[in-house]
Amino acid sequence: MSHKGNVYVIDDDPAMRDSLDFLLGSAGFKVMLFDAAADFLNAHAGLRFGCLISDVRMPGIDGMDLLRRLKANASPLPVIIMTGHGDIPLAVEAIKLGALDFIEKPFEDERLIGMIETALQQSPGHAKSDAISAEIASRIASLSQRERQVMDGLVAGLSNKLIAREHNISPRTIEVYRANVMTKMQAHNLSELIRLALRAGILND
């Protein structure tokens, strides 16, 4: 029986592993489960290309340590980080370390499946396109000075409240600027905005 691609799941919570095994198996993926990052790393060299989904907070090697080790080994596997904490600075760090995306628990099944399908369509070592970089620069240039300040705060991991305090304006106004930034940058969520900022050189790898 053919499948849509390989998915490797790392989570120390047995219930979450079982849930993802059922969900992703039903969606047509070939799923392999790991209860610790160390077990995955031991098997890594023998695994075929696929999408890795890892929890961020685990005993032993956590999700961030795992990303650092994969980056050091130049692993081609796209990684999606799961967090149950809504920790934006942690998500920023995960994207900077090479994670393709992050998703907060509880998440919508369709969103995770869509992320995985996108990840599996990526060819390992995909070259950066100058045209895409120019397009991102054009989007950034369309931002007003205040919108750019808000974007810089967001990709630095600051909350709306902290950005408001820094620029002495109300959090409600920040929400308006934030919505404008997401629209002009054509980013559907914060992780997309962070990736665009990385591509434009606003954040350093």
UniProtKB/TrEMBL annotation:
<dbReference type="GO" id="GO:0006355">
    <property type="term" value="P:regulation of DNA-templated transcription"/>
</dbReference>
<keyword id="KW-0238">DNA-binding</keyword>
<dbReference type="GO" id="GO:0003677">
    <property type="term" value="F:DNA binding"/>
</dbReference>
<feature type="domain" description="Response regulatory">
    <location>
        <begin position="6"/>
        <end position="120"/>
    </location>
</feature>
<keyword id="KW-0902">Two-component regulatory system</keyword>
<dbReference type="InterPro" id="IPR001789">
    <property type="entry name" value="Sig_transdc_resp-reg_receiver"/>
</dbReference>
<dbReference type="InterPro" id="IPR000792">
    <property type="entry name" value="Tscrpt_reg_LuxR_C"/>
</dbReference>
<protein>
    <submittedName>
        <fullName>Two component transcriptional regulator, LuxR family</fullName>
    </submittedName>
</protein>
<dbReference type="InterPro" id="IPR011006">
    <property type="entry name" value="CheY-like_superfamily"/>
</dbReference>
<keyword id="KW-0597">Phosphoprotein</keyword>
<dbReference type="GO" id="GO:0000160">
    <property type="term" value="P:phosphorelay signal transduction system"/>
</dbReference>
<dbReference type="InterPro" id="IPR016032">
    <property type="entry name" value="Sig_transdc_resp-reg_C-effctor"/>
</dbReference>
<keyword id="KW-0805">Transcription regulation</keyword>
<dbReference type="Pfam" id="PF00072">
    <property type="entry name" value="Response_reg"/>
</dbReference>
<feature type="domain" description="HTH luxR-type">
    <location>
        <begin position="136"/>
        <end position="201"/>
    </location>
</feature>
<dbReference type="InterPro" id="IPR036388">
    <property type="entry name" value="WH-like_DNA-bd_sf"/>
</dbReference>
<feature type="modified residue" description="4-aspartylphosphate">
    <location>
        <position position="55"/>
    </location>
</feature>
<keyword id="KW-0804">Transcription</keyword>
<dbReference type="Pfam" id="PF00196">
    <property type="entry name" value="GerE"/>
</dbReference>
